[in-house]
Specification:
Strand content: under 5%
Number of strands: 2
CATH topology: Cytochrome Bc1 Complex, Chain D, domain 2
Number of helices: 6
CATH superfamily: Cytochrome c-like domain
CATH class: Mainly Alpha
Structural class: mainly alpha
Number of domains: 1
Shape: globular
Helix content: 40-55%
Largest sheet: 2 strands, antiparallel
Length: 128
């Protein structure tokens, strides 16, 4: 009997904790964890990707480390698809000169992953 009740209770508690009251069909971008900046939409998937790679070795959200703070990047570049594309290619190929002489190393990730991370970074401007 305990083998049935305990998992059922855990499942019910999990469901209650993860669900929210109200009509879910009316959720906005802010309610769903998505952010829209300058027509560029991002969600926390970009932040999750940043956390799984070596990005935080050189970057932080609000402070300059070896490379610029993500907040400074978001202030420098408008959130346009052209900038997302250009910055994603820079993440993949690496480079130097825009933020100083220390080069950013190339990253072996897909263009879609790089774009998702850049989209997240460019939405930080609105989260001050």
């Amino acid at each position: 009997m305990k083998k049935v009740i305990v998992p059922a209770l855990c499942l019910a508690l999990f469901y209650a904790a993860c669900s929210s009251p109200g009509d879910k069909s009316k959720t906005s971008a802010a309610d769903s964890g998505r952010t829209v900046t300058g027509g560029v939409t991002s969600d926390n998937k970009g932040l999750e990707m940043i956390g799984t790679l070596d990005c935080t070795t050189c970057h932080a959200i609000n402070e300059k480390k070896i490379g610029p703070a993500y907040m400074d990047v978001s202030k420098k570049y408008d959130a346009t698809e052209e900038n997302v594309n250009n910055l994603a290619h820079k993440v993949i190929s690496g480079g130097a000169g825009v933020w100083g002489t220390v080069p950013m190393t190339p990253h072996a990730i897909s263009i879609d992953s790089a774009k998702e991370m850049v989209r997240y970074i460019l939405t930080l401007k609105n989260q001050q």
